[in-house]
Amino acid sequence: MPKASGSRRTPPPSTVPAYGATDLFPALQPKTHVPPDWLTGLLTPPPRSDMFPIRHYPNVLGILRVATDPSDEIAKTWDNLRVILPLLALAVAVMVAVTMSVTLFVTRRLAVVGRAIGRMRENDLSVRAPSRPCAKSTGSPKG
């Protein structure tokens, strides 16, 4: 008996391709970059594998071998480092800028006090220590 021309025959289950959401929608696939060799060498542990016999008493049906492959985890780590390292560099730059500005503020204040002490050493006792930050000493007391 001939089949209708519009009907479809499904292939046996062993040949049906398995599609996940990332296969159907390539935009959902995480964008991983290939990690550099130095990072792979640094993070790759020594290879390890375990073997488990599959038994149905008294017969051994087969052996299951489980081996480690950390390449996907190293790729995820590299993706995270690609985001974290620039942020870390930015944080270090901000900390250096803040440190430099605080140091500049303190040294300016100390320079004003040092100039006042220097004038006092020269027996100009009319000089007073500055009462405001970075105030210019005028040489005469305010009153």
Overview of this protein structure:
The protein has 143 residues and is of the alpha+beta class. 43% of the residues lie in helices and 12% in strands. It is built from three helices and two strands. A two-stranded antiparallel ribbon has the order 1-2. It starts with 20 loop residues before the first helix and ends in a 22-residue tail after the last helix. Keywords: Membrane, Transmembrane, Transmembrane helix. This is HAMP domain-containing protein. It comes from Paracoccus cavernae.
Order of helices and strands: HHEEH
Tally of individual helices: 3
Class from helix and strand fractions: alpha+beta
Strand order of the largest sheet: 1-2
Oligomer: single chain
Structural Rg = 37 Å
- Poorly predicted regions are 10-14
* Average pLDDT rating: 79
**What's the total count of β strands?**
2
Largest sheet: 2 strands, antiparallel
Q: Give the distance, in angstroms, between the N- and C-terminal Cα atoms.
A: 120 Å
Backbone shape:
rod-shaped
Helix content: 40-55%
DSSP strand content: 5-15%
Protein name: HAMP domain-containing protein
Transmembrane segments: 83-106
Keywords: Membrane, Transmembrane, Transmembrane helix
Core attributes:
single chain; 143 residues; alpha+beta; rod-shaped; membrane; transmembrane helix
Short description:
Keywords: Membrane, Transmembrane, Transmembrane helix. The longest helix has 51 residues.
